[in-house]
Amino acid sequence: MRRRLSLYGLTFSLPLLIWQLLFFVFPLVFLIALSFWTVRNFRMQPDFDMVNWTTMYGRAVFWQAYATTLTLAAGAAVLTSILAFPVAYAIAFKLSPRVQRWAIMLMVIPFFTSYLVRVYSWQVFLSDAGIINVMLGWIGLGPYGLLNTPGATLLGFVTLALPLVVLLQLFSLIFIDRTLIEAAHNMRCGRLRTVFAVVIPSARVGLVIAALFAFILSFGDFVSPIYLGGGDPTTLSILITDTTKSGQQWPRAAVIALTMIATLMIVAYLAVRFAYRGRK
Amino acid sequence: MNRENEANRNPLINGALLAYVLLAYLFVFAPIVASFVFSFNSDRFPSIPLGDFSTEWYRAVAADPLVWQGLRNTLLVGVGVGVISTALGFGAAYTDHRYNFLGKQVYLALALLPPTIPVVIMGLAMLAFLSRVNLSGDAGAVIIAHVVICAPFAMAVIRLRLSQMDPSLEPAAWNLGASEWAAMRHVVIPFCRPAILGALFVTMAVSFDEFAIAWFVSGLNETLPVKVLGFLQGQVSPRINAVGTFVFIVSMTLLILAQLLLGRTAAPRKE
């Protein structure tokens, strides 16, 4: 089956390559160039000026947003992983294959379902006169200001990432060698200890990759920080949308975007290295 | 397969685990169900206890010409994205299935990485680039941008199907005198047909829900999800629930169709 690329082969392989070069690689490379352009009289012009980098990096608000975004995304990755693990574990080990298929299908659906509408729904739950506060009122509590808090932002991130994290964890758990687990049990290793000493290490790659995806999704999301977190404290994604949409400061937005990409690359590199440490 | 060890059969712990699983599904589906319920609720500010049953939000949405325009744009974009992404994805999946070449890793990275780049960054990059080459601000710009993130989904779906194909099937066709093109047409494509249709539905569903990149590049030609974002930015209005329920039903239908198609193809060889 290993033949050299021919006209026939190129017909199938080239279109995607060309499309992704033109509309994926070029735009990202163009961002680098754009970050050195200048804006005069509300018009961008090609230039080679460090001004956007020095302006953005000189602002306290940028670094605050950076710290906020990093903390929230890391928090979301950890929280989602912990919340998802028992679900993935139960689906992988406790359900019959038939129920398992249903469980997987039900987890796939929300991942493709309008995130915006789900965030709006959480507003309905969390607002001052919303469902949760009304219910708390029945037992004489509240109302609490739940909306426009970092906790609400995290809730949005978990909503966004949980289905994917459950699925990725599940796929790594399903492929664990069952005999390892039985061996542990035969040697009188307790349930919980088996989970921590056998299951989690065997599924480490999948678990870390799942957490990485939760981080990436949360790091770039601007909907939850605005509509659940109230935009304060601000995040890098909000800075990008504000800078792009309400001003002509695209070069500065490019600086933020490039900083985000660099951060994501470093985090992804560290995560993958950690996931495969001691393996070949 | 699921034979469990003695130590693993504590009904209390199993019960607690299953209860937790149900709770997690409740958490995942609560916002979707709430949106559906409140779309038929008369109250201006949705909460409990529920107000009267009402279809006023649907009527308000249906009376908004911008919503119809958004729907037209969404459908136009969705179909365009579905067809182009599936074609590109099929080509890439077939390339990965059949050929080995120098730089294949890079090729696969280009084919699969785009969905992992945050949408704000893709949106900004697309907007800056496309407006530079005078392509931004219309439905075509949204199609171009959506294909970039949708083609990988199509490729993954079709690649899975190709891996189920007996590797000697294509050579058998060649030995019987079929040209490569004929083998493609009479052997490979028929074998992949369910996955091709599945990919079409999945990519349409992804495009149908994508709002961020579309928001950056669409200009005045907003798609329906961008319209929803507009509603969110305005005052709180249950109209979001009405549009949301509609969007949800459409994506749901597309996904169920895709899963039925793909589920059926996966079954015969495995079991």
State the shape of chain B.
globular
β-sheet strand percentage of chain A = under 5%
First-to-last CA distance of chain A = 27 Å
**Uncertain ranges of chain A:** none
Rg for CA atoms of chain A: 23 Å
Instruction: State the fourth-level CATH superfamily of the largest domain in chain B.
Output: MetI-like
Major sheet details of chain B: none
Quaternary organisation of the protein chains: heterodimer
The ordered string of helix (H) and strand (E) elements of chain A is HEEHHHHHHHHHHHH
List the keywords.
heterodimer, A: 280 residues, mainly alpha, MetI-like fold, 2 strands, B: mainly alpha, 2 domains, 11 helices, 0% strand, globular
Question: Layout of SSEs?
Answer:
The complex is a heterodimer of chains A (280) and B (271).
Chain A: H1 7-34, E1 38-40, E2 43-45, H2 51-57, H3 60-94, H4 97-111, H5 115-126, H6 131-138, H7 150-174, H8 178-186, H9 191-202, H10 204-220, H11 223-227, H12 236-245, H13 250-275
Chain B: H1 11-39, H2 56-62, H3 65-98, H4 104-112, H5 119-132, H6 139-162, H7 169-175, H8 180-209, H9 212-217, H10 224-233, H11 239-270
Helix pairs in contact in B: 1-11, 2-11, 3-6, 3-8, 3-10, 6-8, 7-8, 8-11, 10-11
Family (chain B): Belongs to the binding-protein-dependent transport system permease family. CysTW subfamily.
Protein name (chain B): ABC transporter permease subunit
Keywords (chain B): Cell membrane, Membrane, Transmembrane, Transmembrane helix, Transport
Structure description:
Chain A has 280 residues and is an all-alpha fold. Chain A has a single domain (60-275), classed as MetI-like (MetI-like fold, Orthogonal Bundle), CATH 1.10.3720.10. Chain A is built from 13 helices and two strands. Chain A has a two-stranded antiparallel sheet with strand order 1-2. In chain A, a hairpin with a 2-residue loop joins strand 1 and strand 2 (43-45). The longest helix of chain A has 35 residues, at 60-94. Chain A is globular, with a radius of gyration of 23 Å. With 271 residues, chain B is an all-alpha fold. Chain B has two domains: 6-39; 64-270, MetI-like fold (Orthogonal Bundle), CATH 1.10.3720. Chain B is 75% helix and 0% strand. Chain B has helices at 11-39, 56-62, 65-98, 104-112, 119-132, 139-162, 169-175, 180-209, 212-217, 224-233, 239-270. The model of chain B is unreliable at 1-7 and 267-271 (pLDDT under 50). At the A-B interface, helix 1, helix 3, helix 4, helix 5 and helix 6 of A face helix 1, helix 3, helix 4, helix 5 and helix 6 of B.
